[in-house]
Amino acid sequence: MKLSIVKIGGNLIEKETALEQVLENFSKIEGPKILVHGGGKMATQMAEKLGVETKMVDGRRITDQETLNIITMVYGGLVNKTIVAKLQAKNCNALGLSGADLNSIKSVKRPVKTHDFGFVGDITNVNTNMFSLLLNNTITPVCCAISHDGDGQLFNTNADTIASEIAIALANEFEAELYYCFEKKGVLRSIEDEDSVITDINTEIYQALIKENIIADGMLPKLHNCFHALEKNVHKVYIGSVDMLGNEKEIRTTITL
Ligand SMILES: Nc1ncnc2c1ncn2[C@@H]1O[C@H](COP(=O)(O)OP(=O)(O)O)[C@@H](O)[C@H]1O
Ligand SMILES: CC(=O)N[C@@H](CCC(=O)OP(=O)(O)O)C(=O)O
């Protein structure tokens, strides 16, 4: 059976109309589905309001205790509950989850190499039995970018990685399709030209795009997660706008090995 895993990024969540549209399209997807959300931009704004400095390295947030408190409030609270309420209003039976809820996602502290990321976790286990149980009972999990270590510690974990690891964990049981939704129509050849979507990227093209510096910033870990998912039996992986959900004819980037 097909399973759709949709990740929505912080730039979409922040804009009221974009969020409405993505949740409208998501709620119409038939069959089992999971929504994973980020919210990095909102966490940064909240940190600024509270006078806490934000530091990012390689697209990941250095997460000290104060930052962990902020991201828990923003991702696990405000963003997650707002999305769940909006999905319920669209007759989608959503259940909000952090990685600690139902022990859904376990992680360990990211090892200190060149940087100490603080309370950032690398995923070690996805509770597939629990996700299957929910999906088989027509419940739609809504997962935020928080995991836990099983000993009471919460960790901040990149939302793109949460989405790919959930897709990988469920790929044996379902035909998993992973959709990375953001504010562009796909991976762009030129960041200034919104219509320069590269419709197909395979491993060879990916290497060439990195060399040409076309894939940079947040796009680097996103594409890394895409290829990792495909290597681990995820059936299909796409990057595109909200319009790609439920519309196969919409322009988007299809990733293949
Ligand atoms: N070639 C590219 N095509 C599209 N976006 C790109 C590209 N290179 C860099 N980017 C940037 O990457 C951002 C998406 O990464 P990120 O902010 O991590 O995603 P998300 O919103 O899903 O969390 C885009 O907003 C864009 O500014
Ligand atoms: C460790 C780490 O960096 N976690 C991310 C989690 C949120 C996220 O991934 O949000 P977007 O998808 O909106 O970027 C962060 O705090 O920014």
TrEMBL record:
Similarity-based family: Belongs to the acetylglutamate kinase family. ArgB subfamily.
Its Enzyme Commission number(s) read 2.7.2.8
Listed PANTHER family: N-ACETYLGLUTAMATE SYNTHASE, N-ACETYLGLUTAMATE SYNTHASE, MITOCHONDRIAL
Traced from the root, the source organism's taxonomic lineage reads: Bacteria, Pseudomonadati, Bacteroidota, Flavobacteriia, Flavobacteriales
Q: Where in the cell is it found?
A: Cytoplasm
Q: Classify the source by domain of life.
A: Bacteria
List site positions: Transition state stabilizer: K7, K222
Which CDD domains does the UniProt entry name for this protein?
Answer: AAK_NAGK-like
Q: What is this protein called?
A: Acetylglutamate kinase
- Quote the gene name from the UniProt entry: argB
What UniProt keywords apply to this chain's record, in alphabetical order? Amino-acid biosynthesis, Arginine biosynthesis, ATP-binding, Cytoplasm, Kinase, Nucleotide-binding, Transferase
Residue intervals of the Aspartate/glutamate/uridylate kinase domain: 3-240
Q: What does this protein do?
A: Catalyzes the ATP-dependent phosphorylation of N-acetyl-L-glutamate.
NCBIfam families to which the protein is assigned, alphabetical: argB
Q: Where this protein primarily resides, as one coarse class?
A: cytoplasm
Reaction(s) the record says it catalyses: N-acetyl-L-glutamate + ATP = N-acetyl-L-glutamyl 5-phosphate + ADP
Q: Which organism is it from?
A: Galbibacter pacificus
Fetch the HAMAP family from UniProt: ArgB
Could you give a GO molecular-function term held by this entry? acetylglutamate kinase activity
Q: Where does substrate bind?
A: G39, G40, R61, N156
Metabolic or biological pathway? Amino-acid biosynthesis; L-arginine biosynthesis; N(2)-acetyl-L-ornithine from L-glutamate: step 2/4
